[in-house]
Amino acid sequence: MSNLAAALASGRFVVTSEIEPPKGLSLDRVLADVDPLARRVTAFNVTDNQSSVMRLSSWALCLKLLERGVEPILQQTCRDRNRLALQADLLGAYLLGVRNVLALGGDPPHLGDHPTAKPVYDLDSVGLLRALTALHGGKDLAGNPLDGPLAELFPGSVVAPEADDFETEIAKMEKKIEAGARFFQTQTVFNVGQFERFLRRIERFQVPVLVGIILIKSPGMAKFMNEKIPGVHVPDELIGELTAVAKEDRPKKAVEIAARLIRSFRGLAQGVHLFPLGWARYLPQVLDQCGL
């Protein structure tokens, strides 16, 4: 059993965070972000060509984290690989010690740095979860037997509690659970009341949820998220808080807001998932203010 699976099973409030592989080979920046948090974060998501920007492979950085005694969550998108390559990479990652996998669709290539790349999407995230479930049971997605099951595989996926089409988002979540998702990380959430409504609707699913928390760097960033990122709604009062402070004080205010949100979500979610977006150096302060 992975540390993440064990922590969620224990009922302890869990903290996960996210890191981006480098666009190249140097791990200096990544390790500088990970090391101060290594004993406070249960597992780190390792993104998979996030925003369709080509980077070091997720499984390679997962292996480097394992070598340092840090537990990774392998993010795997359906955008770049067909079902053969997805399953082959999962077998390889498991062989190297990866146990946690987050199944994602992936952003379209035109958004990234290779806009003419051809998207694959042979499977969607539900199909990828079905593949993970099959591998866990000792077969591939076509039903062919494996020489040994991936018995400790711990698959998860994502959900957006503040999605505009709330009922459709719940229905997608249910399909993911039926396909084998055993934990969820959410899109960043700012509205505690909406999150409580979401939890009431999914109570019957009996699946752990880690609520997403982001460090808002500026009023401009908050407005951009409201306009461009589906399922994200930064309240006007939070934008006002950021607007009211000097630019040099924004990191302090961002930490204060994130810590306040985490304290509000404790007792509701099974944990939090942190999106540092280049501000990982401030995450220890966030956790300090929350007593985590």
Protein described:
The chain is an alpha/beta fold. The protein has a single domain, classed as TIM Barrel, CATH 3.20.20.220. It is 40% helix and 15% strand. It is built from 11 helices and 8 strands. It has an 8-stranded parallel beta barrel with strand order 1-2-3-4-5-6-7-8, surrounded by 6 helices. The radius of gyration is 19 Å and the shape is globular. The two termini are 23 Å apart. The model has no long low-confidence stretch (mean pLDDT 96).
- What is the tally of helical segments? 11
Question: H/E order of the elements?
Answer: HEHEHEHEHEHEHEHHHEH
CATH architecture: Alpha-Beta Barrel
User: Can you tell me the number of structural domains?
Assistant: 1
What is the C-level CATH assignment?
Alpha Beta
- The low-confidence parts are none
Concise structural overview:
It is built from eleven helices and eight strands. By secondary structure, the chain is α/β, with parallel strands linked by helices.
